[in-house]
Design brief:
The structure holds three protein chains of three kinds.
Chain A lengths: L1 H8 L2 E5 L2 H9 L3 E5 L8 H14 L2
Parallel strand pairs in A: 1-2
Chain B lengths: L1 E6 L6 H12 L4 E8 L2 H9 L14 E7 L4 H13 L17 H7 L5 E4 L3 H13 L3 E4 L6 H14 L3 E2 L5 E4 L2 E4 L9 E5 L2 H13 L4 E6 L12 H12 L5 E6 L4 H12 L5 E5 L11 E4 L2 H13 L3 H21 L6 E6 L2 H15 L3 E2 L19 E4 L3 H4 L10 H12 L3 E9 L8 H16 L4 E7 L8 H10 L3 E3 L2 H10 L3
Helix pairs in contact in B: 1-3, 5-6, 7-10, 8-9, 10-11, 11-17, 12-17, 14-15, 15-16
Chain C lengths: L3 H13 L3 E8 H4 L7 E4 L11 H14 L5 H9 L4 E4 L18 E7 L4 E6 L15 H27 L4 E2 H9 L10 H18 L3 H13 L3 H14 L11 E7 L2 E6 L7 E4 L6 E2 L12 E2 L3 H5 L20 H12 L2 E10 L5 E7 L1 H7 L4 E7 L7 E8 L2 H15 L3
Parallel strand pairs in C: 2-3
Antiparallel strand pairs in C: 1-4, 1-6, 4-5, 7-8, 7-11, 8-9, 10-15, 12-13, 14-15
The chains are: A alpha+beta, B alpha/beta, C alpha+beta.
Chain lengths: 59, 508, 419
Amino acid sequence: MAIKDLLTNGPIVVNIGIEQFYHDLKKQDAKVVHVDWRPSALKSDLLSKLRKLREGGAE
Amino acid sequence: MQRVEVVSGVYYDSVSLMRVAQELTKIDGVIDATLNMATEANIKIMSAAGFDLSGLDLRPSDLVIAVKAKEEIIDDVIAKAKEYLSNPPWKTTEISQQYFPKSLNGALSMLPEANLALISIAGQYAGDEAMECLNKGLHVMLYSDNVPLAKEIELKNMAKEKGLLVMGPDCGTAVIKGIGLGFANACPVGPVGMVAAAGTGLQEVHVQLAHRGIGVMHAIGTGGRDVKEAVGGITSLMGIEALLESDDVKVIVMVGKPPAPEVEKKIFERLSSGNKPAVLGYIGGELEGDRPPIYFCKELEETAAVAAAVVNGTDPDLARKDLSLKYENLKELASHFGKRKGYLRGLYSGGTLCYEAQLIASKLLGPIYSNAPLDGRYKLSDSLKSIGNCMVDYGEDEFTQGRLHPMMDSTFRAKRMIEEAKDDEVGVILFDCVLGYGCHESPADQLASSISQVKKQVGDRVIFVGYVCGVEADPQIASRQRKILEDVGVILADSNAQAARLACLLLQ
Amino acid sequence: MVDVDKANKEALERVLSARPMLAGMGKAGEVIPKMGERMLLHAGPPIEWERMSGPLKGAIIGAMLYEGWASTPEEAEKMASKGEIEFDPCHHHHAVGPMAGVISPSMPVFIVENKTFNNKAYVTQNEGLGKVLRYGAYSQEVIDRLRWMEKVLYPVLNAGIKRAYDSDNAIDLKNLIAQALHMGDELHNRNKAATSLFLRTLFPYLVESSNDNKALAEVVRFLDSNDHFFLNLGMAAAKASVEPAHGIQGSSYVTIMARNGTDFGIKVSGLGDEWFTAPAAVPKVLLFPGFKPEDVNPDIGDSAIMETLGVGAFALAAAPAIVQFIGGTPQDAVNYTLEMYEITVSENNMFNIPYLNFRGTPTGIDVLKVAETGISPVLDTGVAHKQPGVGQVGAGIVRTPIEAFVKAAENYVEKYLTE
C-alpha cells in the first residue's frame, strides 16, 4: 500500500511554495527538489480541461 | 574631456568588454566609456560615438579603452577599466545555486522517485495543484490554508481511492521517518507514531516526549477540519491505519481538538480493534477515564507524559500525579515574585498553544478575551486592542494576510509586547517562543530586544512569562534561545501548560 | 479524443529527420514563390504600414530605393503609406529574414532544400554590422553595399555553392550547426564558429569556381569581417526543417515564432494558418555605449526560428559567455536551457550540449505546456534602435509574450477538446 511505502522509505519531496522548507529538508539530508512555482497562464476552467486531456491521453 | 588608451596584444570577448564599459559608466563623473578590439567595424562605431581615434595606428589585436569623463577623474577611470578587465567585479567565486524547475513535471523529471508534494502556495491555487500531484501518484502535504472545504473533501476522497495521504489543508507540521516537514522540531526518532490535527499541538507533544527521552517516528498531520463531520476523519483514519501497520510504531498518539462524535466513534473503534496502545489527546475535551490500552488526555504535556509512561510500561496515572505535583510546585515559584496586580496578556505564535493556555487560564482567572476565544462572547472586537485578561493568537488569518507567519517572524508580536507592557493595567505578559525548522533563526532575539527595551521604561511592574518550545538539536538551539530570554529577565517554564499556569498563579 | 502526444511526436520526428542542404542561390523575384512585382517581404506576422516600427519602415524605404521604385526617402514613404507597395510576411513565402527582414525582388537569396521532404526555404545574404538595412538604415552607404552584395558577393558565392552542389558535396547546414554548438555558438546571437566553418567548407569551391581574384578576395574579406554571416543560413535551415511539421491534426507543436517590431506572432501545427499575436516585448538588455533604455525598439525579426528549431537561447548552456548580457553567471545560461525543457516536446537528436553530458537541446515548443506552466520561451537576440537608420543598440535575452501562447492554447482547447 502506498502509504506504507512512504513511511518505510521516508519522504522524497517535491517542494512547491516556500523556499525555506526546501533548505530545511536539505539540512536533514532528505531528497528534495524545489519548484519555482508560478500560476498557470490559463484560466482555471481551461486549465482543468487541459489537465483532463493529459490524464486521458497519457499512454 | 576624453581619453583614449590602447593596449596591444590582448584579446577580450566583446561581451566582457561591454560589461566593463557598463561598470565604468556607473562611476560618478563618467559621461561615456567604451572598450573594443580595434577592428575596422569597431573603429567606426567608436568614432561615431564621438571618440577621436585619428592618428592612431591600430590593429585588430589592439584593445582600445575610450573614456569621456571629468578631467580630474579620468586617470582613475582608465585605471579602473584595466582593473575590471583582470578582476571583473561581477564574477562570483562560489558556484551559484542549482536549477529550480518551474513546473511539477519539470520537478518530476529531475526527481522521478518523488513520493510526496509539500505545497505551500496561496490557497486559491493550492487545491488544484494538490489534485495534479495526486494524479501523479504523490502523497500531499498541504501547508496552505484558505483551501475551500469542498475542495478538501474532493481531494481526500480522491486520495482515499488511490491509497494516498492528504495531510491538510492548513497542515503546518509533519514528520515522516524522522524527517520534519514544514515547521518541525529536530527531535529523536522512537516508537511513537502521531496523528495530529494541530500544528503547535503536534510540536508541543513532540518536544515534551523528547524531553522525556521518547522519540517519534512519524507524525501525520491531518489539518484542522479533518475530524469534523463534513470530512469524516478520512486522513486521521488512514493515518491510524498506517501506524497500526507500521513495525516501527509501538504507541499511537493523537493530538487535536475533540472530533465530531461520529468521527470520534470511528477512531475509537479502529484503535480498540487494533493491537497497539493509544493516547488520545483531545485538547479541551470532556472525556473522563481511560479505557486501557486507550488513554484520554485533555492537555498537551499530559498527553506526552501519559504516552511516555505507556512506552516505558509504567503507570500513566502515576505520570499524571507527577505532573500535578509539578504544577502544584509552581505556586511556590509564583510566591517568590509576590502577588502581581493587573491583567494577563498572552501573545502567541502557535494556535494550539494559545488555545490550551486559554483553557487553563479560564479555569484559574475566569473568562479570557481572544481573537480566537473559547467562548464566542469574549471575542475581541479589535484584535489589536486587548480587553481584560486576554490572549491573542498571531497565527490567525487576520494577521497572516500579506505577512509572514509569526513563527517565521516575531516583529509584529514583539511590537505588541511593548504596547502591552506600557499599559499600567497589565501585570503579566505570557508568550511562546517556538523553534524548529521553518521558524525564524532566532525568535528569542526578536522578542528579547523588545522586552529589554520596554523594561527600561516600566521596570519590574510587568512580569514576562515564556515557554521555549524546542529541543537542543533545533537550528536555533533551545538552550541558547532560553538564555537570551532569561538574560532579559523572562521567567521560563518547562511546558506550555506550566507557563500558562505560572502566569495565572502570579495574578491570583 | 485527440491524442496530442502522438501528434506532437509525429511533428517532432519530421523536424528531427530534416536534412537542410544549401542548394543554390537566385534572385528573390525569380525563385521565391508568389513574390509579387511590387511586393516586399518582411519579418514577423502580417502588419500594415501605419503600425510598423521605425526599423521596419526604414528597411522598407531602403529596399524601395535599392529597387529604384522611389528616388528619395520621402517619395518612398509616400508610396508606402498610400498602399502602392504590397507587404507580406517572409513566412508566407517559405522565407525568413533577420531583424526587419525585408526582401525585395532584386535581392539575391540562398535556397535551402530539405532533402527529407523536398521543401525549400529562402533567405538573403547577411549584410554585416553597423548601419545596415535590416536595422532600418537607408543611407547611400547601405544601398551601395546592397548593390555590391548583388553584383559581387552573390555571383561569387553562387558559383562556389553550385560547384559544391553539383559535385555532390552540397553544404550540409545541419551538420555545421551541430558542430558550431560544440564550439561556443548558440546560432542566434553567436555565429562566429558557424561562420568560420561555413567559410572553410565553401572555400575550395569558391577558389575553384572563381576567375576574378579581386572579387574573390573582397568576398572572403567580407565573410571574415562578419561574425553573423551564418545567421541567415541557419535561419533558412531552421525554416526548411520545421515547416514540414506544420499541419498535423491535433498537434500543439509551435512551427513559427516571429516578430515584426510591433507584434510577436506564433503559428501552431494543428491550428491551421492562424497567427496568434501579442505586442512584441521590449528587450531589457545590455546596451552599447551612448544608448538608453528609451531608445530600444520592440523585439523584431524572424530569427526566433532558431529557438523554434531548438537552438539559440534554448542552447544557451552551450554558449555561457552570452549570459553576461544580463548580469548573470554561466549557471544562469544553464538554467535557461533547463527551463526550456519544461515546455518542449522532447530533446534533439543531433544538436546537443557538452556541458549537460551531451543532452539534446530542448526541441519542439508545446503551446499547451507553455500556457499550463506559465513559462514562455526565451529568445537570445539583437536589439534595434527605435528610430530607423540608427542601427543595433544592444543584445540579450528576451522573454516572449505569453499572451500569444495562451490565445493559441485557448484556440486548441476550443477546436479539439470542446464537443
